Every structure is written in C-alpha cells, then in structure tokens.
Amino acid sequence: MVGESKLIDRCPMQGVIDIVSKKWALLIVTALGNRGTMRYNNLLRDLEGISPKTLADTLKDLQEHRIVNRASFNEIPPRVEYSLTTDGRALRQSVLPLIHWALERTAHKDCVILGSALAGPKAAK
Length: 125
What we know:
Elements: H1 2-10, H2 12-20, H3 25-35, E1 37-39, H4 40-46, H5 52-64, E2 68-73, E3 79-84, H6 86-105, H7 112-119
Antiparallel strand pairs: 1-3, 2-3
C-alpha cells in the first residue's frame, strides 16, 4: 500500500485532475475556445453564476498551469485579454467528447457555452 501512494503521486493524471476538477475551469476553457480571445467582463457575463473573485482566481490558476494566456496592453484604459495556450487548446479538444456526452444527458440543450463548443471556435488564433 505504501508503494501505491508514491505511484499515484507521480501519475500524470493527478496534475490533470487538479486542473479540471475546479468547478469553473472547464467552462472557462470551453468559453475561451469558443471565442478565441475574451476580456474579463465578457467571460464574467458569459459564465452566468460565477463570482468575480472565483473567475479571477480560476483564471490565475489556469495561467499558472499554462492553460490560459493573459495579455495586457499598455493602454488607457488598460486592456487585458485571455486566450487558450497550445496546451489549453489541446485540453479543449480532449473535452469535446465529454461535452457531447453532457449535452446528450441533459434537458438544458440551450446551454450557450456547451452548444457553441460543438460549433467550433469563432475567433481562434
């Protein structure tokens, strides 16, 4: 049993689970994948029910895991845009089968974020 614990700690799935297990992480990845680039307030508006603090914390966490890129522009007023990194786009592609599965199981077929994910990115870079 002690040896098993060490194997689990080194398993690459542990890192993936840490990233995607956050309540809003996959929805943020999906929203950014749908649009390509988004500003903070646009994400806040699209992700109904997320608090500003939760969005900020989750974006920061996704940046630290190199899933989301944050670009700030030295303008007045300051402008910050978020987009998926190469790893973020790969994660989104990996999640698309899960999105299909979720849409098949739910009565909420009108979910804008999930439905848009299946249509593909509108402004992907």
